[in-house]
Specification:
By secondary structure, this protein is α+β, with helices and mostly antiparallel strands. It is built from 26 helices and 9 strands. The protein has an 8-stranded antiparallel β-barrel. A hairpin with a 6-residue loop joins strand 4 and strand 5. The protein starts with a helix and ends in a 13-residue tail after the last helix. The relative contact order is 0.06.
Length: 737
Amino acid sequence: MFILHEIVTKSEWIIAVLALYVVAWTRFNSPPTNRSGTTFALFFLGVVFYYALIVALWVLVMIGLVQGSIGFDWMGKAITTVNPEAKTQLAQYAPIVAALIIVVASQFRQVARIDTAARTFCVKLAAIPREADRLAIELAQGADFEPTDRLRSQVAKIISENIGPQALNFSRDGSVAARFTRAVALYSLFVGPRNNGMAPEFAANSYSRSAYARIMQLGETVSGRADARYEELMHTGLAYFTSPQPTRELREALNCSITEVSNLTCSLMARFVLFCERTHNGRLQRLASLGFDARPTPSFGPDQWATTIVLVILLSVCMMLFMPGTRRLDIGKVLIIAITFGVSIGFAVLGAIVVAQRFIERREGDRLGFPPIAELMLAALIVSGLSIALRIGIPLVPALLQGQGFQDVLNQFVDRLPGVITPLACTISLGLLCCYLGTVEWRWYRVLGLGALGNGLALIGTGWLVGSMIDPSVLAQFYVHPENAIVTIALSTGLTGFVVGAMVLAVFNKSQRIRKDCAKRAAETPLPSITFREAPSLAAELDTSLQPKTEAAQDLGSYARADVVRLEGLYVCFRPAFSATDSINAYLVQIHWDEAEGCLTFEERERVDAGHTQKGRVYIPDGRPFMSFVTVERGAIRVIMVSRPESNEPARGLIMTLASPGGAHFTPASAPIVLRRMADRAPQLGFVHPSTADYDDYRRELEMVTPMFGCLATAPRASATIQAAPDGPGAHLAVVR
């Protein structure tokens, strides 16, 4: 009852601490797909670090409330005349009030920016975007994809009806048709169901369908871009596969569309897989259900681990009840001891398996590797800590329910403390056995026998040591003859080690040999398989992170999204054509905020010369009236510098790019350019000639570029020319009409 009274008394602290953890979890997991971006352990590392920052702030706010001049101090003084104990009573609620202040303060803009910076730091600490981006690149570029029969028929119908049979190729020969078919299949598998309202083929249960809906909802920006790129892919594919002699530019445009559709679709797939599955094998199985060549690695999994724990518990119960020389104990007490011991051995098995798997993966082919002593000792210490927590926590629950104090539980723990040595020794023993017997190509009974013998002998010695360290008065509670208890403890512990060693070594050796055979077959076949190890260097180039960014990088101008939202939209862009003196080239430019890039980006559309379509980032320097549209691709740079559009005025400036008026030879070229926001009526696009309706309108706008929005300095003329025409006109930008 004392414990319950203390819990009620300190409820203000408990509620505040738990509430802050819920707040930290919710904010850190915003959007909820943050958890799907990395490993389970790294995600919790970021949550704990972010929670620690909130707790530190909470302590500071609480100190200010209790002792500061703006806190409860003045409130207590104000009402002291009414209630002398009011100040003390108010101070009791400081933890809850401080937590509420932190939650409410985060709604203010300046505080929210600090909170966003802290969360961003913790997200980077947990490497949340990296795992998903790395897997997305592996799926898009290096993983073999085998569509199901249903998906094959669907893709065949789409390509045959819209383009033709020449674009359909399900083989893996690396041809343009094969890569085009693969991109269409990926899109039809994952993004297509969202558009036609059908249930995804791979979502076999409600959990998968719910996860799919959440990923598509939170990845709406990425899926929208995938839709746009897919439409471009089909248009470009139609032009390429129906052309008798497709040009190099058309081929490059098709390859670019294939890559973008694959990357964007696989980005959503990666987040779906990581959101649904937390384990390595679970992710591989999920990828296999999607059609990727992902071979699950057989391992000592949760089922085997749970079976080991149950078997140890049953064995412990039988030995305590039926072994000669033991006292008849209450069945409840027997179950508590057996469950505590069984779960402790389960932790020991888990630690040994993890260390052994890492050791085997590092020393592939090297049978004489030095044992991983440091890792085994670390795992053993962790297992010991968990065992201590179990030995205190499991008996404490029924003691509190029965109204008993925790002092008896602590006394029992201290009396039986040497028992912690058993899971520690089991971790080291099983770890060494699994490291060196895990991959040997022996018959199963040899591995089983040697594993049972090795672990049994190790735990016999451990049992002897534990029995010698326990006080005889404690042994008298369990054994009729305490003087013979050491032998009984050694034999019973050794029997447990014998059974656990046989079971673990038999299953672990079989799983590792299957894994080795799978790896060997994968190496012999030309089909690439999916791995979860080294992250490729291209991971930073994938623009698919779902974590929103609201401020551009410093080299882009450090502009905030709220300050440039008025620039977003669709513009008609026109400039003089370099290939024809009387023509104006007009096309569309879409400006939008890219949440993954964290800046404004632009994309050109409806260009008649589609092979030269550009896209890139928008640079906006602070304090200057011009902004730049920059494209950087494989060393080539194109810049459009225009004024910032004000009210109904368009953006005017110059373009610096390459032109090829002669056909093959490229020459640096510059020209006036205008971007005008789209009005209600559709503008004329393509090469606009003097006889068309919008030609004069476009020409007048281009003439207004000079000299206010752009000028070209010409080379100085000869002195004789200057003397002959001292009053001649100055240098200006001439537009060919």
